[in-house]
Amino acid sequence: MRIQWGGQFATGHALVDHQHEALFDAINAFDGALEAGLAPERMDEMLAFLERYAREHFVTEEFLMMRSDFPARADHRLEHERLLLRVKFIRELRDQDPSLVPPEGLGRFLGEWLTSHILTWDLAFFRFLGEHPVEP
Ligand SMILES: [Fe+2]
Ligand SMILES: [Fe+2]
């Protein structure tokens, strides 16, 4: 399943939109690699990259939420943490034995998580930020 970037995901924040687009690309690349039947080590590298990049992106959003004193920042942060824990768990299980967590379905899970997270949590925050801008 490919996820397609579109205007409905735009937050209006250039860096965040860039990071989101890069996450779309990384998830699609992961999914594509799966279809192409890449070696498990390569899949794990791609998963580790996704985890690192998502972590970096979450720090960007969490910093903006802190600076703007966004009321729902604790809950939004928890959503990020849950995803990272889940990915870390999957990665660690695969480190032990790749057959424990077959990669099928992972791309779909990540794509669905990202699109629904942006449309609900991220857009709500950036709407708030638009109404309560912070000094750069
Ligand atoms: Fe985001
Ligand atoms: Fe977020």
Textual characterization of the structure:
By secondary structure, the chain is mostly helical. It has a single domain, classed as Hemerythrin-like (Four Helix Bundle (Hemerythrin (Met), subunit A)), CATH 1.20.120. The protein has four helices and no strands. It has helices at 14-36, 40-67, 73-96, 106-131. Helix 2 (40-67) packs antiparallel against helix 3 (73-96). The termini are far apart. Residues 20, 57, 61, 118, 122 line the site of one fe (ii) ion.
Short synopsis of the structure:
The protein has 136 residues and is mainly α. The chain has 4 helices and no strands. The mean pLDDT is 93.
Topology overview:
Elements: H1 14-36, H2 40-67, H3 73-96, H4 106-131
Bound molecules: fe (ii) ion (FE2) (2 copies).
For the structure shown, list the relevant keywords.
mainly alpha; 136 residues; single chain; elongated; binds fe (ii) ion
